[in-house]
Automatic annotation (TrEMBL), chain A:
Superkingdom field: Bacteria
Domain Thiolase C-terminal residue range list: 255-384
EC number of this enzyme: 2.3.1.9
Keywords: Acyltransferase, Transferase
Keyword check for Cell cycle: no
Protein name: Acetyl-CoA C-acetyltransferase
GO molecular function annotation: acetyl-CoA C-acetyltransferase activity
Domain Thiolase N-terminal, residue spans: 10-191
Biological classification of the source: Bacteria, Bacillati, Actinomycetota, Actinomycetes, Streptosporangiales
From TrEMBL, chain B:
Protein name listed in UniProt: 3-hydroxy-3-methylglutaryl CoA synthase/uncharacterized OB-fold protein
Signal peptide: none
Gene Ontology MF terms: acyltransferase activity
Organism this protein belongs to: Actinomadura viridis
InterPro entries tied to this protein: ChsH2_C (IPR002878), NA-bd_OB-fold (IPR012340), Thiolase-like (IPR016039)
Amino acid sequence: MPSHGIRDRVAIVGMGCTRFAEHWDKGVDELLLDAAGEAFASAGVTRDDVDAYWLGTAQSGMSGMTLSRPLRLRGKPVTRVENYCATGSEALRQAAYAVASGAYDVAMAIGVEKVKDSGYQGLNAFPIPDDGTQRTLTAAAMFSMVAPAYARRYGVSETEMRTVLARIAAKNHANGARNPRAQFRKEMPVERLRAMPAVAGGLSVFDCAGVADGAAAAVLVRAEDAARYTGRPLLIKALSLVAGDGSGVTDPSYDYTSFPEVAASAADAYAQAGVTAPREELAMAEVHDCFTPTELVLTEDLGLADRGTAWKRVLSGDFDRDGELPVNPDGGLKAFGHPVGASGLRMMFEAWLQLRGEAPPERRISTSGSRSLALTHNLGGYPGEMVSFVSIVGTS
Amino acid sequence: MRGILGWGAYLPYRRLDRSTIRAVAGTGGGTGHRTVASYDEDTTTMGVAAARDALRGTAARPRAVWFATTVPAYLDKTNATVAHAALRLDRTAAAYDAVGSVHSAMGALRAGLDADGPCLVIASDVRTGLPGGADEAAGGDGAAALLAGSDRDGPVLAERLAWASLTEEFLDRWRIPGAAASRTWEERFGETRYTALGLEAFKLALGDAGLEAGDVATLIVAGPHARAARAVAAGSGVPAVRIADRLDGRAGDTGAAHPGLLLVAELERAAAEGAEAGRIVVLLTLSDGADAVVLRTTGALAAHRPYRPLAEQLEAGAPVAYGTYLAWRGLLPVEPPRRPGPARPSAPAAARNRDWKFGLVGSRGEDGTVRLPPSPLDAARHPMAGETGTVAALTVDRLAHSPSPPVVFAVVDFDGGGRLPVELTDVDESGIAVGDRIEMTFRRLFTADGVHNYFWKGRPARGAGQAAPDGEGTG
């Protein structure tokens, strides 16, 4: 993919993130004010110091006015973006490119979603008029097809697979339990997770990400200006987005054991960042664990494990917070829930805390201090037809 | 010579054991089974299923399609146009509904036999009564399709010799539009009137054909008044062994579809027996008057092999619980899922994509790739409705919105290329596995804002028609 990237040209100098929760007493406005306020304070700026805003929300509001009204922004360019579950990351990407272009000195990327106000279970897509032939299956069911396909291809027994998936959920719940911003803060033992009844294919409710409301924000400036705001900026090394052509859904050779869009965006991001050995170079990865088999497969697509080996690395604890490459040290979508527009920036917030050494000792990653790069990843859509986003950030 | 060129019969997969009714309803029930249309079937979808089989293996292109039912999926809007689109009939083929009564189904057949050129006559019905009532147990769901035409259109299998019709206004059975069940007058009144009308029509028709009761190989007496039908048969002069089985025990009375269904059963039996030409079959129906049509089989009949024989369908099927049946019919409201209901399909989008939505036509690219739905970048259309495929991946969704959860869903790879992730129907979640064979069936996915969302689903290919000896087309 012929992308040039913006390596080391843009820095994140301030971030904010609400607790992700069932915010019955907060609306979109309050969540945006909380996240933006924390990010302004973190960067030492006011709303008027920010030249341009990018708001990511999938379906909690339309147009830039969703942000400009609660923040009372006057005369500012505010853009609303949407790209499925990569919506928050897309906002970050647009803000970063705007700063890199020289168009603005200071930009904010902010994401928000009110999911719980719908009164329904799970995430539900905004209805778009169509011919009625689109599938109405839940995402859980679509992703549930990954687990048996992976098990069949790599010779993993049904029992082993059940343990692998439960192990992923248990890891993320254990990480979330230590994180005050996480929605679910209770450890879940593997045996209990293994015994849960199935709701979609072989997946139980605990193989699925939670559902929550939340918001997160970042303040971005040119790298050479970063020192004016903080002594410990996060430098953007790579931003890569791939929107698949949906061919996996119609192609009989697609076997549900990989997400080609993720592999493509990862390869592009590593090239942009100059990363050649992600397993040795990355301090951590925040990945899109919308369902437990998703996390399993995409660790391979992201090059964090060789093909067909991620399940063994999960079992041996390689991706645990104290493992050789911590994955979802903040608890992931599993423990946070998934307010669509906010999730990508929530992931970045964890990289912000961990790489800068601000995560408290009880939840600090094993690689803290020894490695300086973090990866965040979102995907949106279904196996065979998805968008994928990968970022790489670093402190040096 | 004008007559029947082909036929199709359709019985839904589900069967209600009548003995299970009484335990819940406190009354009613009986012995034997009745057919039950699935939650995703209506008179239109069943009619399409029967018509697809009627059109298999014939080169005749219908110039008109008539659709008859007592339970139309739509009023105001023509249901025959949905069937027309699903069957991918020519734009110049007319499509008409004949809606409201068993009598209208006979009118449609008469119109088909009187028409110029090939004419497809579809009769389809869903029969429902109130819980514990006689109609609930005696009714059945199903469809029949008869392709009428002349020997210019293809080999005639049964030639029409005569038609007699008697019209008489009296009140025996009635239903206000929207009502869940019919009402009937006390039985004896209707029996008296129908018996006299039936015998008279029978005599008139035979007279027109220059035949006598003794010439009749089979007398079919259809119509919802079972006592009258038995009385007409008994008084007809046709020996009891030549009176056709009304399929009460294995299907139930399928209303507007029943005359066609019983005729199909008889023609199929004659074909299977290798009957010689000249067998006389009389179809007599008792409904707001009486109609009698005299048919004579031809030498071509013995060679005709239906794609999905009614006899096989009668033996097939799987049980449905009485509570599920009541829920499917809207007689037992059940808790909806905590998910938003589906949105109604867009009329312009459906119209633009009607080949795909109604006809299951994909596209084929220059590189041979089959795309479902079709791509505007591909020049060649690729019809899929008759294709079979194999389950490549499978899941059961207990969270998705469905009129009858859980949703069983498969990724199907078609033998001739192409992959379609698609909902399955007529299957229990434990009854399907990766590698199983799938065929396509036209169904109603859901109804929103009074708009029926028709599209195709997969269903296990259960062997029907797999051994069609003449390798008939795959429609």
